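User: Quick sanity check before I run a bigger batch. Here is a single chain. Can you write out its predicted 3D structure?
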Amino acid sequence: MSEKIKTLLEALPYIKRFAGSIFVVKYGGAAMEEENLKKEFAKDMVLLKYVGINPVVVHGGGPKINKLLTDLNIPSNFIDGLRVTDEKTLEIAEMVLSGSVNKEIVKNINDMGGKAIGLSGKDGRLLLAKKVKGKDIGLVGEIVGVDVSIIKDIIKHGYIPVIAPIADGLDGKSYNINADTAAGSIAKALSAEKLILLTDVSGVLDKEENLISSLKKSEVEILIKNKTVSGGMIPKVGCCVDAIEGGVEQTHIIDGRIPHAILLEVFTDSGIGTQITGGS
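Assistant: Done. Predicted structure follows.
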């Protein structure tokens, strides 16, 4: 019992500090695939809302897109971690992301006692994009505009926004957006207190595979240059640095395979993943 009380007391200053603030959470990986983790994530979002924090969920859905493409005998190709997206692939991605995946997340949050509203980035032109340049990857976009009024209205009325990363293009086309990138752009536009990326690793690791619990923005480039940070972690830390430069106070890369990882990172002194902040 004393341990439970200690945990609650440890959380208290963080609850007070972050009351009224916005956390943008990129939801993906195993946390979206395993049934028990889906429920625990939904509980976490509801708890954050009840203690006065405003979560904004931006989700991926790669495995489900891959499965449907495979079932339809449509090949999947990736360049630098981004899905090569032709019109047929975009149609499938939008159907999965804005449809089944988005609605399942909304239902899970509602089932746990919260109130969630699902959105595509195309709804109300919430997300505006242009085609990614320099890569031959088709209908993949980069965000050039976020209509925060839509998100703020949803938050104001007590709901949790759940956003699928499909955007309207300046050229009238639709674009597939990397979920990490979309989350970072939304966090910047909202001047969010935190950007939290759920991954399938414990965070940023050093060369001995030990977790680096805290990093300054200036240290990230050094770790990339000496190849401590490599592969799929590069765009994630890049997303965090970009968010910090855009005004987000703190960013986190945490292990979504651990139940309640978000609460452990946000409400405990030691945290559980890697926190990246500004400064040198």
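The mean pLDDT is 93.

User: Great, the batch can go ahead then.
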